[in-house]
Amino acid sequence: MRSASLTFVSKPTPFALLLCLLCAAAQAAPHRLVVSSGDCRDAELSGQSKAFYDSLRARPEQRVLGAPEFGERLFPAPSRSFEELQRQLDAAQDQFYEGRNAKATQLLDDALRDIQRLPGGEARWKLFVRALLLQGLNHRALGKTRDSDAAFLQVLRLQPKYQLDPDQYAPSLRQAFDKLRRDLARAPKVKLSVKSTLPASDVYLDGLGMGQTPLTLELPAGAYELSMVKGDVASFPRQVQVQGVDTPLLVDLAYEGSVTAAPFPCLAIADGNEERTLSHAVRLGGTLGVEEVIVVRLERPSSGPKWFAATVLNVEGGQKLREGGFKTQGLDAPSEALNALVDFVTTGRSPSNLVVSANGRAPWDAGGRGAGASTGAELTAPHRLSEETELSDSAAPSGKGLRTASYVTVGVGAAALAGAGVVRLLAQKDLDGLEARRAANDGRLVGTDAQTVALRDALVKKSHLMTGLFVGGGAAVVTGAVLFLVSSPAKPPPALSVGIVADGTGAAASVSGSF
């Protein structure tokens, strides 16, 4: 009988790694978002909203999206002014002409990141073009012709008639630039159709003004940064993939323009429509990927005291979970009442009688708006900025069932993988026994030795069992992960889109900024 040895090496499976990554992401992701509603310029509203937010954040068990992160994800702002960026481009140009190309590359890349955060307009576009042309020159000096052409094409795709200054650029470079222009003119174009829920909104691509909505453009395929402005109202900046034959885009500027980040995250209320405000709040929670949104506001009835109220909304189900508030006077809310309100919105209970729960008609709502506070009024919201669709009312229960099934399936898979580890430990005893029999028989495993045969058969059974547990456990984990991903409610075709793009072969979603 030929001797054989079995070696078991315990390695983390891809499924186990995926499970660990999902768990780590779940632990790190913010759970709640605090946003005020009303007049976003009201100092009293902003001050008391921030005091509530600080009280909530002070509790270690609460994962709340930070106000700075809110602004960074929705309205990324440059860290430097136009003048400072112009000086940095001057420094990059000096480094280029002095032959320090690596330093010039660093300065240019850094400047371009901030330029792309500036508000759209002629000033930004000119700064952007200067940076791109200098980047193209620098890449050519480094022998990176393809990167150089890409920088030049970013200018030509939106301004195909742009001419290089003959006093600043060599004839050979101007010839290469003109060749890129001709090649681009022959390349197929994609129709980009842009509409807005607010008509006659100004459209900017890469900071260059392109016209007003409704707007149709013929563009080379590629990624563009799009923003939209109407008066004081601005959209979230977003990356749009222009591809296929036709790329339609509908931006809900009425929703996006109601959101501000300073001095505190806020939803502006223009018409006092509470249902629309809460729907926007749930939608905002889906945009930022949180589970709950807490909408805080100041209620000023025509008669009686002033109230600071908070409404807790579930993002996935689009439901109002609870609502409470306390009487307030002056600019500062009492800390005891704030802490009691935090207790109420996070647990549903409050140890203090300072907080009033709106189980029926809210005391601050003379018009009966609070009558539905505990009825679970359903709202709608997408789960991410790239999904501008609305949740159907009937999809939430099935989504919850699939989510529960995903948890159970992942748990079964994890148990199976753990069982495989246990079997591995038991198999080690049989391996040790075989090694002992080998040593007793001069380094050979003898087929007539009954003890050797018994140990071998037991080891084979355990090997088969362990393989089955690994395969079954891995399959269960993968199935659970798939169920988790598809357990969000079914979505009908989008009514109001922030970033949907589609063509004849499929659809894609654009994502705003670098979130």
Automatic annotation (TrEMBL):
Positions of transmembrane segments: 407-427, 465-486
Keywords: Membrane, Signal, Transmembrane, Transmembrane helix
Region Disordered, residue ranges: 365-400
Domain of life of the organism encoding this protein: Bacteria
Keyword Signal: yes
Domain PEGA: 191-243
Pfam families, alphabetized: PEGA
Name recorded for this polypeptide: PEGA domain-containing protein
Cleaved signal peptide residues: 1-28
